[in-house]
């Protein structure tokens, strides 16, 4: 017995009249009644159970065989014998009764007559521990302590409330019991129940779609009402055969009547007409409200039957989407705002994908195009100003999509079930990227299927209001960070094939040489030091050109430039411009006499074998310098570079062939790095 049940019983202290407890002999509960001296009549429903008797004078015990006779009302009337009934309890009882609704209706008459409240507790069949047990193949329909007592009913929050309402009871208090995850793990030692395991975190995340998924025991108090005709706590679901395939959600503020009419025109020409259109009028003022109504009224009758106008007068631009998705009747839901266009195959392409892979997010290609509003002969028209760009015509990549959105809102359709049943909803806090966020969370649960067909045009407006113009870049960046952070905090599953993608990505990072920023050291009479080091600034127009700005008051005798950190590099096309404060320039290249290097000078190239390559420039007199500009190409040495280095310092006059042979022999004898040492030693000599 948990503390919540004790809390319910404690409300009965000092009552006037008697409490009626009906159940299967839970002695621990009777002990609580006895301890607080609550006058209690206990009706035991199974003679094999404990607590047929109790030693407390405040507890009376009786037996009634519920499995042999169902009408308990006459028996209870005899037991009460005109005593005042204060309250009734059914703790862990309803689930075993053969006909719980009939039993409750008998109690309703008794409770209503005496103004008594009914206390119940039943296990929640939808609690996540039961769901996890079912995944493991474990389920027991008998009571663990009594194999003769079989469960006859299972209760979710919805089915329990429906039963209670149909039996004439209304909930007045809630004491539902939610155990912590460590208690669940201790009960059965399953890794699915351990809050530390990845599988538990993922399944628990999914189970959050059920607001009662964490509740293990429903513990509630009800008052007796007049029994009304049977009702359901859920809205009646329209038969699937009457649902359209697609619900199209179109946001509008009525400010772009011509663009809205373009949307109607596109939809009227679809090759698959199995859709409904929900026009979400967001914050329509009187004049724009009239515009939207006129646009709808001008539609042919067969089209108007597909259209519903739903007004949303509050919230940001995300609110009308949420309302529309909740109102949608289609199997799938797609967004088509009033400023975009779709081709005649838009619905058909989604439907074809749906037939092949139902339940997944459906996606097609989209192109983008620049448009503007212009006046021609006094009339406002919408005109394209560029050719379509196919930047969104690319295969879906989950990892890339987290970084950059390549799926405009009209290019995909989401299962209605995911939104309305799994509660994968729009984040109403987002002012931008709301569609990107919903799309990613839906794909992570539903997966995705796509068609390599272009079905829509994402219009970029040059002179009309749009979300990109209404919200600054900071809003877009902040909103993206917000929803990525939110997704990152929840466990996710990766589609098949993405382990290899991640490995390839990591291998690419390992093999990628980190970019090194060249450094320049200047000698102002005390040698080179880190205190007199300058980092280069890259030229935006030439990535191989670097700039160093110096302090103009220093008298400098020499400059040392470090183009990299590692050896085995070849520098070519070297050009250095040294600018004095006076404006005079000194041009230095590979052949300049005042240039020295730690590398080997080849023909218009420098081969650096060892790490820490250096280029040093000496001046005939101390100069006040303003800037140094350095440009060069850098590459890895090839066999010809190494051969030329060997020839240069071997002073061998034999033919090229013999030199190559000798180089190959040395390579076999000493190895690659061994031959490099030989070259180095010769250069020193």
Question: What tags apply to this protein structure?
Answer:
alpha+beta; Spore Coat Polysaccharide Biosynthesis Protein SpsA, Chain A; single chain; eleven-stranded antiparallel sheet; 685 residues; Rossmann fold
What are the SSEs and their pairings?
Blueprint: H1 3-10, E1 18-23, H2 27-35, E2 40-44, E3 59-63, H3 73-80, E4 85-91, H4 100-114, E5 117-123, H5 128-135, E6 142-143, E7 146-150, H6 157-166, E8 169-174, H7 181-188, H8 198-207, E9 217-224, E10 246-252, H9 257-268, E11 275-282, H10 286-297, H11 301-304, E12 307-312, H12 319-327, E13 332-335, E14 341-342, H13 346-356, E15 361-376, E16 379-384, H14 398-403, E17 412-415, H15 416-420, H16 434-446, E18 448-461, H17 467-470, H18 473-489, H19 498-511, E19 519-523, E20 533-535, E21 537-538, E22 545-549, E23 555-562, E24 569-580, E25 585-589, E26 595-597, E27 600-601, E28 605-608, E29 615-635, H20 639-650, H21 656-670, H22 672-684
Parallel strand pairs: 1-2, 1-4, 2-3, 4-5, 10-11, 10-13, 11-12, 15-18
Antiparallel strand pairs: 5-9, 6-7, 8-9, 13-17, 14-18, 15-16, 15-17, 19-20, 19-23, 21-22, 22-29, 23-29, 24-25, 24-28, 24-29, 26-29, 27-28
Helix pairs in contact: 20-22, 21-22
């Amino acid at each position: 017995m948990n503390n919540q049940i004790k809390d319910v019983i404690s409300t009965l202290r000092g009552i006037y009249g008697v409490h009626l407890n009906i159940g299967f002999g839970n002695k621990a509960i009777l002990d609580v009644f006895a301890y607080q001296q609550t006058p209690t009549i206990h009706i035991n429903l199974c003679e094999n159970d404990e607590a047929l008797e109790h030693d407390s004078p405040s507890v009376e015990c009786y037996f009634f065989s519920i499995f042999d006779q169902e009408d308990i009302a006459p028996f209870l009337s005899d037991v009460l014998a005109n005593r005042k009934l204060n309250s009734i309890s059914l703790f862990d009882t309803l689930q075993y009764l053969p006909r719980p609704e009939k039993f409750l209706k008998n109690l309703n008459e008794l409770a209503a007559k005496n103004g008594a409240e009914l206390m119940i507790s039943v296990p929640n069949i939808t609690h996540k521990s039961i769901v996890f047990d079912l995944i493991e193949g474990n389920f027991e329909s008998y009571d663990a302590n009594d194999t003769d007592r079989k469960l006859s009913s299972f209760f979710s929050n919805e089915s329990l409330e429906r039963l209670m309402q149909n039996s004439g009871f209304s909930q007045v208090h809630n004491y539902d019991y939610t155990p912590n995850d460590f208690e669940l793990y201790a009960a059965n030692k399953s890794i699915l129940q351990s809050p530390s395991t990845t599988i538990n975190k993922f399944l628990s995340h999914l189970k959050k779609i059920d607001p009662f998924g964490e509740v293990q025991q429903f513990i509630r108090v009800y008052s007796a009402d007049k029994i009304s005709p049977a009702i359901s706590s859920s809205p009646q679901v329209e038969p699937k055969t009457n649902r359209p395939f697609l619900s199209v959600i179109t946001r509008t503020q009525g400010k772009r009547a011509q663009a809205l009419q373009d949307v109607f025109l596109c939809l009227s020409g679809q090759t698959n007409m199995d859709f409904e259109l929900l026009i979400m009028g967001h914050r329509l003022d009187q004049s724009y409200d009239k515009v939207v109504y006129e646009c709808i009224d001008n539609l042919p009758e067969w089209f108007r039957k597909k259209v519903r106008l739903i007004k949303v007068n509050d919230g940001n631009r995300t609110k009308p989407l949420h309302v529309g998705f909740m109102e949608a009747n289609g199997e799938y839901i797609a967004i088509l705002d009033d400023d975009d266009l779709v081709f005649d195959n838009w619905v058909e392409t989604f439907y074809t994908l749906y037939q092949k892979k139902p339940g997944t997010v459906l996606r097609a290609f989209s192109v983008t195009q620049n448009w503007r509003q212009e006046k021609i002969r006094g009339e406002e028209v919408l005109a394209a100003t560029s050719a379509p760009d196919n930047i969104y015509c690319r295969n879906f990549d989950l990892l890339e999509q987290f970084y950059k959105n390549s799926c405009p809102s009209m290019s995909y359709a989401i299962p209605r079930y995911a939104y309305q049943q799994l509660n994968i909803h729009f984040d109403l806090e987002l002012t931008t990227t709301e569609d990107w966020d919903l799309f990613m969370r839906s794909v992570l649960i539903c997966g995705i299927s796509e068609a390599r067909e272009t079905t829509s045009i994402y219009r970029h407006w040059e002179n009309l209001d749009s979300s990109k113009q209404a919200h600054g870049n900071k809003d877009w960046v902040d909103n993206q960070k917000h929803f990525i952070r939110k997704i990152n905090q929840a466990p996710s599953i990766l589609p098949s094939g993405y382990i290899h993608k991640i490995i390839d990505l990591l291998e690419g990072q390992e093999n990628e040489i980190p970019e090194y920023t060249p450094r320049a050291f200047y000698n102002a009479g005390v040698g080179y030091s880190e205190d007199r080091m300058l980092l280069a600034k890259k030229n935006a127009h030439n990535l191989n050109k670097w700039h160093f700005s110096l302090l103009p008051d220093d008298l400098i005798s020499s400059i040392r430039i470090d183009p990299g950190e590692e050896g085995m590099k070849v520098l070519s096309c070297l050009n250095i411009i040294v600018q004095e404060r006076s404006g005079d320039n000194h041009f230095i290249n590979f052949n300049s006499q005042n240039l020295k290097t730690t590398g080997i000078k080849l023909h218009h190239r420098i081969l650096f074998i060892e790490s820490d390559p250096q280029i040093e420039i000496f001046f005939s007199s101390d100069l006040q310098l303003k800037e140094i500009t350095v440009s060069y190409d850098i590459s890895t040495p090839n066999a010809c570079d190494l051969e030329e280095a060997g020839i240069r310092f071997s002073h061998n006059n034999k033919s090229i062939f013999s030199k190559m042979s000798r180089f190959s022999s040395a390579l076999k004898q000493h190895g690659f790095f061994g031959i490099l040492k030989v070259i180095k030693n010769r250069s020193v000599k």
